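Q: What would this complex look like in 3D?
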Amino acid sequence: MDSWETVIGLEVHAELATKTKMFSSALNSFGGKPNSNTDPVSLGLPGSLPVLNEKAVELAIRVGLALNCEVQKSVFARKNYFYPDMPKAYQISQFDLPINKEGWLELSDGRRIGIERAHLEEDTGKITHVGGGGRIHEASYSLIDYNRSGVPLIEIVGAPDLRGPDEARDYVSELRSILVTIGASDGKMEEGSLRVDCNVSVRQKGDKELGTRCEIKNINSLRSLGRAIEYEAKRQIEIIESGQKIEQQTRHWDEAEGRTHKLRSKEEAFDYRYFPEPDLVPIEPSEEWVKEIADSLPPLPRDRRYLLAETIGVEPTETSLIVQRDLDGFALKAISFKANKKRVLVHLENNLADGTGELTPEAFASLTVMEMNGELTATQTKTVLAELVRAGGDPQEIAESHGFESMDNSELEEIVDRIILENSDDWVVFINGDETERKKKSGFFVGLIMKETRGQADGKMVNQILSDKAKN
Amino acid sequence: MVQRISREEVAHVARLAQLALSEDELDAFTSQLAAVLDHAADLEALNVDDVEPSTHPFPLKNVLRVDEPGEDFNIDEVFEVAPKVEESQFRVPRILGES
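A: Here is my prediction, written as structure tokens for the whole assembly.
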């Protein structure tokens, strides 16, 4: 197993956050009564003609710029197929001239993943198969809602640069975070506004050639993405190790069964007969327009990671979680109030996962200073922090109301001495035992001392006193 | 000289377009399509090195619409002429295969 490498390339479809559809003025809105957000264009009625939504183009350019792509002259194309989710028998997409080409996205660990293209296309209607438990082949008939038909999509095609389920998940969360930050999409996987198709192949580590790939569809969450990749890589490795060859296929992820099923082989792949869409003229955004859009972009997650990391004095990888939680602005504010930078990082990462609630940057700053001055132990700081998040207030007052006063060292030493005397057998093991025994006894003594001081002793100080006494 | 289109290719294209062609029709369309393609192939005699590829006969670009909702549309008029409607959705026979 260890000699194998999994190679992954993702195709992400994101619905663009416009008010109306890509080629008509029907509403782009999720939910609502079936077919209520339709018009002749989204229903593909004869004689209806598409007119391109300026906002969809602007958002596509925003995506391209945020992904470091080249924005170029582009052309729409018809992708022909017969299926009732597109009643006009073709989907308007882009083919050989996409609006954005050749960019990259940086993972939270700093590794860059290639973006081959990010093009515009229209979404399709939603089909519900009735009867046969929703299975296509056993259904008795199907119902179609065209509310989604014609919703603008950006399809972002990533290079096969990802090397495992963790990277794939990281890529999608980073991409989602970028899309949301620049206002291009709401990025909701559960509502289907962000959809992921996943190309998986395997090869021996060190090989330059790519293996034969399979495309996996129907992935509805980050969790499914990871599971589907793990399953599919294992399936392919087993096939190759048994001496057989991988057949290029499209496969369907079944979340309940935790496996992929063959949907169709390469021979059955569709022949879409793309050709330039005669009802639409090319898009050639002016340099001024592209520059205007570039200037209006907010700081991207990557910029925010770097800024916070530089401010605190750590690596950007250490600030990615905080940016993901959208707490970097809060961190910078607290630091502007002279907070202890490292403690800001630690608390935002470990103790403020559910948000900052009623905590203000000022109070947070004072708390980190109190903690660093030794006025509060780590445990006490956590208690005060939780209360600040719940109800706000002044950390000094909260600490006093709990009776948190840092313990005098001589007082602490007396307690330590007494406990050692009361547990002299354990103390001998602590001094003379091997590392495991030492560790065990250390925990035993710290526990007793904390109990005796009702948690007011500083854990670090207790450990220090114990090891000093052990040496003497 | 470009390769002439084969009868098999015409049958393939017809199948993709969901057209049921008889054997006689296949023969007829094969020669007709070949004639059209031969005509297009004549253009290959021209030197177009300095000509920018065009994708549309009109010299237009960036025809755009402002992102504002339009007039209300009465879907019931469409439902009235639809073969079958159920719960505000279009009802179609069971579908084989996937999109």
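A: To summarize the key features: The radius of gyration of chain A is 29 Å. Chain A has 15 helices and 15 strands.
Q: Very helpful, thank you.
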